[in-house]
Request: fold
Amino acid sequence: MKLCGFMLLLINSAASINLKYISKRNSVDGCIDWSVDLKTYRVLAGEPLRVKCALFYSYIRTNYSVAQNAKLRLIWYRNKGDSEEPIIFSGHRLSKEGDSIWFRSAEMEDNGFYTCVLRNSTYCMKVSMSLTVEESEEGLCFSSRIRYQERAEITKSKMVTCPDIDDYLAPYKQPIMTWYKECQRQDWRSSIIINTTSLWIPEVQEDDGGNYTCELKYGSRVVRRTTELKVTALLTTRPPKVLFPSERHATAIDVQLGMRLILDCRAFFGYSGDSRPIIYWMKGDKFVEELEGHIRESEVRVVREFLGEKEVELSLIFDAVDEMDMGNYTCNVENHIGRGSGSAILQKKDMYRLELVGGLGAIMLLLGIFTAIYKCYNVEIMLCYRRHFGSDEADDDNKEYDAYLSYTKVDLESVESEMSEEELFALEILPDVLEKHYGYKLFIPHRDLIPSSTYIEDLARSVEQSRRLIIILTPEFVARRGWSIFQFEPRLHSMLVTGEIKVIMIECSDLRSVINYQEVEDLKHTIRVLSLIKWHGPKSNQLKSKFWKQVRYEMPAKKKETVSRRQVMDSGEQGLFGDLQAVSTVAMTATSASLAPAHVEIPDYNEPSHLQMRHFCRNYEYELPTTAIATLGGRHMYCSLPMTLLNGRLTQNNIEKAKKDIHLNGPFVQLSGQELSSDIW
Reply:
């Protein structure tokens, strides 16, 4: 009677099983097969595991003890391919205990399906369970393939439990459990509460996401379960929003017939759980699948994602735009809350307007390019223009010199000392390059101006006869106020203030730390027409450097001429001596000295018997006799001889007075007869 009642119970259980989400397979040999149970067993290799027969928990309303009393046997099989092989329990690593199989230590070879069969001579029912055994990943305490998954909305609370450990908890005994995050012990923040088998987060933060591992002590072994917690945004309460085309008004798009077109729809979807974004294009009331074959949709692309919120994109592709394709296209988006849409209107492109815009764009681009080129190479461009099309500035201004070079070696005590780089540049390199290489005519005071009682008036007239005024600022020149004459002499100061002469100021170094520099700054503000050029040391001495281009740009426009060494010889000396046509000149080089007759000797003016006077000229100190001037082969020699002497106004009686008027204002060395070897005379 009891057996009949139990069989009736099984039949009723089978009749009510349609409420489950499991479908049974066809009965074979009268055995009802419920296929594979939804529950899957997951374990790390080396850990213990209990696999329970699912018939007693999901399919029949009875337990293992009642089934035993009804004379029903529980038999275990392991599936190998299409066959089922009975399991032989050795008791060492694998044993049967009641309605379960116990693995003392699961191994990789235990992977597969296990089937439990409940039967007697007249009745049979079975179901299979899946077992997955995985090794821990390298450097980790878990395998990502058998993790449990949990989600938590940001700012809300979350309970993370240690799953599937009921079979390992002893009654009336406190379990020993340790929690890890990313396999590391943590100093949990004070708001997080650790319970026996769970971890409570009262307010989830973004960095709470990660892998949480609980480790339970079970005899001599441990049982580990890892849960991946994903932090998400709050569950959305709004429908998705179309970002492009605009939802408020239709977006007009100009297209050219016959051209390929890609029309993108971008939309934002708030977090809505596991539901996928729904986005699609329509033309009127037709889906894309109903349109012409040359129009198609792309795959949905996730542009960006954060905490489950997504920005997605769907493209409508036209292989070649047709006249019939003109019209209104709508991008539709949906979620479980509602829907949204944005429209785009395709219209033919106005080619005239396109050409006009393109032409203006090209003009602006060219203008920008030319402006950039001019800003970078304006000096080179102006020099090229002068060379080919410019006129000579000296043609109609009635001025004698191209520039007045205002620089002297002001430290008389260091006449014999070695010159600094700045002084070498100011006294030798700059004059040589401007006169010898570029053919400018310079007035250099310590070379061309005769020391006399009217020295200041002569200097002012020389400046008036010059087209440019070059002031070279070196630390020594600034420290000793070498420019002060242009502040205190009224005529010279007036020329600077009114712009009557253009000033080229060359700074040879950083002068801000030099004493009197503020006075130089004040002088700059008083000069009406001023050009400032920086000299950057020896690298600026190269003729191809930017420095010389800037100097030439600021100097008077001059047509290029070929200048011979003989012409260069008198480019500076012809200043105040240009009218002395009766006096011959000779460039006293080693070659010209060799042309002198053998019987003629150059007088040695260093002998004390000669009454002599000193005059300084471009690095050379030489002596003038009061007797007749020595000649070589009937040709007179001189170097910036004092005008009063050449005009006969300086007699032997007042030579001593003239010597007192001579200004020793240049870096000069005394020149003997054997040292007449400079071609700048």
About this structure: The longest helix spans residues 351-389. The longest strand covers residues 31-44. The chain has a mean pLDDT of 77. The CA atoms of residues 250 and 597 lie 104 Å apart.
